[in-house]
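User: I'm putting together a teaching handout on how sequence relates to shape, and I'd like one worked example. Could you take Early nodulin-like protein 7 from Arabidopsis thaliana, show the sequence you're using, and then write out its predicted structure as tokens right after it?

Assistant: Happy to. First the sequence, then the structure tokens directly below it.
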Amino acid sequence: MMMMMMRSTCNLTLMLCICALVVASMAAEGPRDFKVGDEFGWRVPLQNDSAVYSHWASSNRFHIGDSLSFVYDKDSVMEVDKWGFYHCNGSDPITAFDNGNSTFDLDRPGLFYFISGSNQHCTSGQRLIVEVMHIHQHHDHDASMPPSMSPLSNSASPYASASASSAASSLPTACLLIPLFLTIASFRFISY
């Protein structure tokens, strides 16, 4: 009976160690290239899905050093200012691409606004706001960097963001301590 409990505890400890390694490797992730819209790509949304790009952006986290890949056919993509975004006005773009496979480097924190070069496509929902957070942080939390807001929000609480950031940065540490705690607890249980 005692041997079976020891084996079970060892298996659990091994599984938790593997979990900790996976979580730690995810925390050390470097710059990424995001294909805008995933498999949908950069095209006019379906009639009942004009928020497809808002949903896509809110399901991703963008950092300085990441890039966006726009894949499209017979269209274009423009980076515009906030006014150009909300009015689907591409008359004075910051950057414009029309080669069908365009990559845009996210080189600063803050909001980036993208629209289709076709006014009709833009008003049908082919536009995107991306919020870029600071550089990918590996293990140390830089207290000099202000917390980022969540995607597409204009007024996130800095306290909520700071606590979420600190909770996320302590996750790998917690995962590493769990197997140690279980091992110690199992030896204490076995010795009685």
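A couple of points you could highlight for students: The domain at 33-132 is CATH 2.60.40.420 (Immunoglobulin-like). The beta strands are 33-35, 62-63, 67-71, 77-80, 95-97, 101-105, 110-116, 127-133.
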